[in-house]
């Protein structure tokens, strides 16, 4: 329902990107949210409203969910960076564990993540924060959260509809 609303809001024609979900989910060690998979297949990676960067698949790596997750995990595990995590006070999700996986971010430094717990597959609360601010928790689907960011001016502090940026989607390199 929310994926369809995003498609209608943006006027986007779904791409139908083929994805080997078994391989992706095997590497992650968890199944991904069903609506995220729909978004991924319909849009691919790219930018909503010229400001929300959605991670899915992109040959240029910028919008590629798995490439970004691997890079974040490598930095989070790097002993030379100390005890500070980019998603402090959390850690980046590692297979079999509990942590955050970023699925979108904004040009203003907002982060949109899932709190993933391998012991609780199928539960994907969204944690979001404005740059250097506290994490806010949302019990809603990925596509509902994204729709509210784009279309609901009262969805604060993350709603961007009041900026009149338009509900557009610009694909990454792959599309």
From TrEMBL:
Lineage, broadest ranks: Bacteria, Bacillati, Actinomycetota, Actinomycetes, Kitasatosporales
Domain Knr4/Smi1-like intervals: 16-111
Family annotation (SMART domains): SMI1_KNR4
Record's protein name: Knr4/Smi1-like domain-containing protein
């Amino acid at each position: 329902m929310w994926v369809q609303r995003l498609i209608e809001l943006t006027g986007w024609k779904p791409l139908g990107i083929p994805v080997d979900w078994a391989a992706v989910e095997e590497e992650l060690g968890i199944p991904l949210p069903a609506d995220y998979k729909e978004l991924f297949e319909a849009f691919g990676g790219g930018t909503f409203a010229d400001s929300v960067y959605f991670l899915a698949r992109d040959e240029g790596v910028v919008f590629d969910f798995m490439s970004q997750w691997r890079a974040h995990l490598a930095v989070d595990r790097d002993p030379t960076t100390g005890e500070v995590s980019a998603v402090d006070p959390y850690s980046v999700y590692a297979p079999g564990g509990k942590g955050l996986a970023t699925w979108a971010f904004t040009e203003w430094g907002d982060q949109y993540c899932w709190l993933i717990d391998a012991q609780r597959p199928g539960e994907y609360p969204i944690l979001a924060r404005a740059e250097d601010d506290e994490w806010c928790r949302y019990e809603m689907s990925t596509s509902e959260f994204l729709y509210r960011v784009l279309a609901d001016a009262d969805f604060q502090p993350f709603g961007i509809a009041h900026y009149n940026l338009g509900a557009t989607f610009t694909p990454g390199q792959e599309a």
